[in-house]
UniProtKB/TrEMBL annotation:
Database matches in HAMAP family: dUTPase_bact (MF_00116)
UniProt pathway annotation: Pyrimidine metabolism; dUMP biosynthesis; dUMP from dCTP (dUTP route): step 2/2
UniProt-annotated binding residues for substrate: R68, S69, G70, N81, T85, V86, D87
Keywords: Hydrolase, Magnesium, Metal-binding, Nucleotide metabolism
Enzyme type, top EC level: hydrolase
Database matches in NCBIfam families: dut, PRK00601.1
Protein name in the entry: Deoxyuridine 5'-triphosphate nucleotidohydrolase
UniProt cross-references to Pfam families, sorted A to Z: dUTPase
Task of the protein: This enzyme is involved in nucleotide metabolism: it produces dUMP, the immediate precursor of thymidine nucleotides and it decreases the intracellular concentration of dUTP so that uracil cannot be incorporated into DNA.
Catalytic activity entry: dUTP + H2O = dUMP + diphosphate + H(+)
Family: Belongs to the dUTPase family.
Domain dUTPase-like: 17-148
Length: 149
C-alpha cells in the first residue's frame, strides 16, 4: 500500500493538477509552477519557483525535489540544491530552487512542469563522539577523486 501524502492547495494553484506520476513506472511525480506571470531566469541566475502546494508528509519520510531530465538536457535548468529536501514537519509552500546553467534566458510560465517529487523513507542516526581512533579502511583519508575517474 502506498503512503498517503495530504496536499493543501493554495489560492494561486487553483487550476493546477496535484503532483502526479506521468507513467506507471515513474519514481517522481511532476510538480508544476504556480506563477502570476512569466518568470525568466537569466543564464547563471536562480529563482525559487512556487508550487502552490503544502504537503503533509508522513513521519519517517521526506519529499525530495529533483530536476526534470528534459529541462536539464535541453535548457540547462536544474534544481540548485539537488535533491532538495522537504522535511515531514515542514508546513509551508514547497518551492523548487531552479538555476539556469544554460547559455540562454529561460522562461517559466504558470503550469509548466518544473521539477519532480520523490517520496523517500528517512533513517535517523544517533551520532556519538568517538573517544578513540575510528576504524580503518582501505580508502582511509582519500577525499575528492581519490577512488579514480
Amino acid at each position: 500500500m502506498r503512503p498517503v501524502v495530504r496536499v493543501q492547495r493554495l489560492p494561486h494553484a487553483g487550476d493546477l493538477p496535484l503532483p502526479a506520476y506521468a507513467t506507471a513506472g515513474a519514481a517522481g511525480a511532476d510538480l508544476c509552477a504556480a506563477l502570476a506571470g512569466p518568470l525568466t531566469i537569466p543564464p547563471g541566475g536562480r529563482a525559487a519557483v512556487p508550487s502552490g502546494f503544502v504537503f503533509e508528509i508522513p513521519d519517517g519520510y521526506e519529499i525530495q525535489v529533483r530536476p526534470r531530465s528534459g529541462l536539464a538536457f535541453r535548457h540547462g535548468i536544474t534544481v540548485l540544491n539537488t535533491p532538495g529536501t522537504v522535511d515531514s514537519d515542514y508546513r509551508g509552500e514547497v518551492m523548487a530552487i531552479l538555476v539556469n546553467l544554460g547559455a540562454e534566458p529561460f522562461t517559466i510560465r504558470h503550469g509548466d512542469r518544473i521539477a519532480q517529487l520523490v517520496l523517500a523513507p528517512v533513517q535517523l542516526a544517533s551520532f556519538t563522539e568517538a573517544t578513540g581512533a575510528l576504524g580503518s579502511t582501505a580508502r582511509g583519508t582519500g577525499g575528492f577523486g581519490s577512488t579514480g575517474v
